[in-house]
DNA sequence: TCAAATTCGTAAAGGACCTAGCCAAATCGC
DNA sequence: GCGATTTGGCTAGGTCCTTTACGAATTTGA
């Protein structure tokens, strides 16, 4: 029953066409007027007009000529990388990653640091200093940052400004606490769940490129899932979509019959790093200290560790069976400490087990191409998209202002 | 990295504005020029021009005047209901429901019949005769139908024209078999999963009105789920999203420890009508013949039947816990035979159980407002949306043709 | 080295669309 | 019946885009 259809005046055409031209230049890297006229379907004068506007607004610049072919050589245009800057921040569990990228998405400065305490004030201080260092390195002011994107654990409630379900960031669940990040960023900033950003990163730069529906499943200290639907991030009603840690654990594992784990019965408690370690211990691998140990032992051929890994694969397969039954994704990307380290040790058994659990062929299952960088890259991708819109809006308002003055 | 931005010429403005005006008339029912100018933001002459075009194309008609207020009385316009017709078909398991609606969505003719066999040819014959009867009743030709929408079990693969996973429609899984429905419909028709259509119906006419993210869970002879995301139907990569029948069944139910059911371990096998009956029998209710019996007995106070219903609620809650963890919907609508008949007998325990299984507050859980009509209403809603676009496209092509001739 | 061919960039002309503003027509209240 | 008020229709004006056309720049070939 919903009927769409925005009414418009002629002036929106100019904006639309400018955006289209900019988008094409962005896509092609370098482009001439005739090329742009052809790909956008606009006429040469219109393209020329748009290019003039965009160049005057500082979004594009002329860059040499295309020679070699017969006839007059065409002037080439490209995006001015300095037309916008993006600050991406990955607030991880034990570390902090910060990077600055230009409008083309090229990372021009980056620092990774161990996290200095989890208290809000120390974290803000550390991030602010890192942002200062990075912008200085690039040679810009912090106010030149067009958009900042933070990736954090937990669910960010934009209404209250609180960060729920982020136990390793104590104090951030208070209403309004997120606003303290304004100190780090310039004016416009965005806070997004880290796993969601990893999914975006994988979509923009990794295995998810060009895939409409896929999920990024992170398994490490905790568990989480980022869902991309129609190429866009899906957050759910309250931003809690993809909280697979609360998936009821599937039956069929005799080890799960112990009362303690049956009581919890959640995916996170059995499949996360701690779950793998306790599983390996119960299987008889008394010296298992970390999930990494277990996977290394399994890779070395230890039969007990191998059994533990197979059990882990079984848990993951059951979770993915639920995801497949509900979402029918084209691709599942495994990330996080265990998802990445496990590699083919995990994907093989997961694929086998999943095949017997789902109706049709199971979705493709791959290990993240970006690894630990996924969140940061996702933050930059989100920032880049937003920054592009912001600078275009700014250019449009400049254009209308100048035409209005005449 | 994706950059949107369609380039446009001035002529698309006319189309856009005509659509906007039409949409407003549709929304308001009856509207005058000044009203439309105000709500669309367009000027009076533009609105007048659009109205003239739409009236000439037969989409709108003038209908009296608005009097009572001071000043000249305004001419009123409304959508011509006869500007388009929609045929909706619900191919159910034992029945067939067919209805014709006009462009306003008013059902003008409808017939429900027991399904005459499940063979493709007899079904097509029956549907064709029903369509003929209905159109005759309305006084239109079958070729006047703008768009036909079929709701069927199974997954329709538009690539091959096959209908997968629909065991009660034998023969329809052959490639190209769906094309036989062209005989029933006029030229343009759409085949959609029945549960998906029920979700759309609930979104257009039922409890889902105005809700962006919700799911419709059908529990009856089989199980299924329709997913609405951002107010649109989500189908998944291969159209198999929402196949909750394949959800791994959660642990924690001692009754499930019998080997037979553990082997299957799917939601459908335990939660569908057959599952309820066998569960009740195993609990000692030897005379349980149908799920309806069980629910009636429970409603009458039978303790064994009540236990069975509670177990059913537990299964449903576990499935919804998985759905909530993955999708975080705002609302869950229960439909299908069991979902509808169960009523508060089911929703109460489901809510209680679900609360203990999920992280945040559980989503709202309600029983379908449309009941057995949900699929048919959904078919009509989908058809209405499509028909509106079709007649607008047709009107636009007429308009450009006439302006081109001048 | 020079002319032909080809392509690019821009200017002018024309068409389509929308807005602003005016005036006539119609209606209601007094 | 008359004035206030609102609606409908019309005209003038402006913005935007496209088509057409022409000069400018470059390569190719002789």
TrEMBL record, chains A, B:
Secretion signal, residue range per the UniProt entry: none
Chain ranges of the HTH iclR-type domain: 34-63
Alphabetical keyword list: Kinase, Transferase
Alphabetized SUPFAM superfamilies for the sequence: Actin-like ATPase domain (SSF53067), Winged helix' DNA-binding domain (SSF46785)
Pfam families linked to this entry: HTH_IclR (PF09339), ROK (PF00480)
InterPro entries documented for this protein: ATPase_NBD, ROK, Tscrpt_reg_IclR_N, WH-like_DNA-bd_sf, WH_DNA-bd_sf
Molecular functions (GO terms): DNA binding; kinase activity
GO biological process: regulation of DNA-templated transcription
Family of the protein in this entry: Belongs to the ROK (NagC/XylR) family.
UniProt-recorded name of the protein: Sugar kinase
Organism, as annotated: Virgisporangium aliadipatigenens
